[in-house]
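Consider this record:
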Amino acid sequence: MSDFETLDTLMQTVKKRRKDSPEKSYTAKLFRRGREKICQKVGEEAVELGLSAVQGHKKEAISESADLLYHLCVLWTDMGITPQQLMKELRDREGLSGL
């Protein structure tokens, strides 16, 4: 499975679990709690990733990155954003200076 297939599979799993019972699915529970809670989790995971990186904990940074990506997928699904839209945005930014 390619890296992009893995992301697509994660997105499909998030979409499917959105409809599950919140008592049985953490993903469904996040959707039930609303976008504010989803955004809070994105922020928490970003901070945890940053702390892991500053401390030089590579294995922990990988794990926190996966957590952040999962929560981003939940947020993207909630907002109707697709990985393809994000890839297009990144392609459109190629060669642009940050200055």
In short: Helices lie at 3-18, 26-33, 35-54, 58-79, 83-93. The longest helix spans residues 58-79. The mean pLDDT is 93.
